[in-house]
Amino acid sequence: METLQLTKHHGLGNDFLIALLSGKEKAAFDARPLRWSDLAKEICNRRTGVGADGLLLGIDASFSEPTSSESAVGGDPFLHGKARVQMVLYNSDGSRAEVSGNGSACLANALARSRDPWAQAIGQPQVAHLDIAVETDAGPRTVSWRHAFYETDDGLIQPHDENVDVDMPIVVPEPDIVPALNDLITQRFGESPRATGDVGNPHLVIATSHRLDEADVRELGSQYQAYFSDGINVEFVWPLVDECHAEGTPSSSLGMRVFERGAGVTDACGTGAVVAAIRAREWGLVRHDAWTEVIMPGGSATVAQAGLTGHPQLQLFVEHVADIEWPLRGPWLDA
Asked: How many other CB atoms sit within 10 Å of the CB of residue 131?
């Protein structure tokens, strides 16, 4: 039986199944035809499939040979490579998504592991670094993957801490919040700030005074996103107490829960964290520091302050979970 080779990764609990395919392999599957949206629904099901928030295809990846450079810290050498890839993402309900911050990070992790750059580095470099140009439905993204190393007691060099930076576009204030939705939000949250933002996919951010439980996130997120014809990701955010700052002054930390279109309640959302951090700064919920820590059920991500380009940067840790062979069968694959 024909199988599809997959790897599973997660960024802060936001998990993806990733298939790295050549252009020829993708064309062959499409000619069958393989209905990717139906496959995504089956394989992402957490009871009868593998389970994930989305199925991500990395198509036609190309790599340049890594070069050896010196680290800015301590002069330790590291291998630095470059890659290009096309990203196609299906949500767990089979719908197509334009882009995902955590998905981009997980794709970078899959590409880097497929090249196994640290295997060449044993006993020499202390960090491996891969810059990836990712083509998405929302336009190009630049993702930087880094892998730190440590030396064990018996002298072996082992990799750890796979860290990814995703360059994000400027947050655009759209789509509009219609009056009926604004009234509905006000019924629950009073005059708390709310705004939309688009970074290739749309978001609605609502400030709350406290953390919402999962049932409320599911119910309210489903209600609010129904007001947008193409759906929307809904983020609920609240400021967190920071012991480093005096009482009554904003901190650099923000709590967030998210309802993602096509996936429902998830542990994290990278693009949502970016939009939420930018809006929270505008509202004065967090400090205008160089970075904002966004803490979600899956963990914390950092949104760096927009620099000279005006583009924010998402920083998070990612993990490889498993290698998977999925049998290609069912009504979504024509013989």
From this structure: 17
Domain count, the chain: 2
Residue 188 belongs to some domain of the structure = yes
Length of the chain: 335
- Token pair recorded at residue 178: 């219609």
258 lies in the same domain as 130: no
Mean pLDDT of 285-303: 92
CA distance 272 to 100: 9
**What is the extent of the structural domain holding 15?**
3-168+319-327
Residues 164 and 24 in one domain: yes
Quick one: which of 139, 137, 138, 120 has its CA closest to 129?
Answer: 120
pLDDT by residue (tens digit) across 171-209?
Answer: 999 999 999 999 999 999 999 999 999 999 999 999 998
Same domain, 190 and 105: no
Alpha-carbon span 20 to 263, nearest angstrom: 22
Tell me, yes or no, if the pTM score tops 0.70.
Answer: yes
| Residue 309 dihedral angles phi and psi, to the nearest 5° | -80, -15
Residue 334 lies in a domain: no
Omega before residue 202 within 30° of 0, cis: no
**Tens-place pLDDT, residues 238-288:** 999 764 555 556 789 999 999 999 999 999 999 999 999 999 999 999 998
Q: What is the structure's pLDDT at 214? A: 96
- If residue 80 lies in a helix (H) or strand (E), which one and from where to where? strand 77-91
Structure tokens at 275: 């939009």
- Residue 276 in contact with residue 233, Cβ under 8 Å? no
Provide the H-helix boundaries in the chain: 23-31, 36-44, 101-115, 117-121, 179-189, 214-225, 270-283
CA 161 to chain centre: 17
In a shared domain, residues 35 and 140:
yes
